[in-house]
Amino acid sequence: MNNLKTNNVMNMFNEILAQNKARDLKELLPKADKKGDEVDLVNAQKEDQLNMRLGQRNVLFLKKVEVAKQKLLEGTYGLCEDCGCEISQKRLLARPTACLCIDCQEEKERHRFGNINFRRDLSAIKSKESEENNSEELVKVKKFNTINDIGFESVVDM
């Protein structure tokens, strides 16, 4: 990587770090003075959980930026950690913190997601579906052909 590109990448990393460190961490913490009904409180709790997850992801990203910046200083930025080949410029533009070339990354994902230990256990879902199907066979469900077949109860009549 030439000096001009190295300086541009270093400036980009410094800018990313400066922008994110300037952000106040208090905005990621849950707010204590929540008011409203149960729905408002649940929505506020969900929003706080989402903000915490986003904050955690941001911290991980900043750590990756720090590692990439250190690699840039050492002169190993842009080299694949597995095979030692140069990572393509397109990949580094799309993902500046990439530490693997596209081939090694694809192999890693193929191994991880192809491995039986990382697959979701679908047997519980299948057994639950079969139980539901068996219970549906026992209970006859009345089917309606027209709206008149459905007996509506009016609130006014009660």
Question: What do these coordinates show?
Answer:
This protein has a single domain, classed as Four Helix Bundle (Hemerythrin (Met), subunit A), CATH 1.20.120.910. The chain is elongated and about 75 Å long. By secondary structure, it is mostly helical. Helix 1 (3-22) packs antiparallel against helix 2 (38-74). The protein is built from 5 helices and no strands. The longest helix is centred in the middle third of the chain and has 37 residues, at 38-74. It has helices spanning 3-22, 38-74, 89-94, 102-114, 123-138.
Offer a quick outline of the entry.
This protein is an all-alpha fold and 158 residues long. The protein has 5 helices and no strands. It is elongated and about 75 Å long.
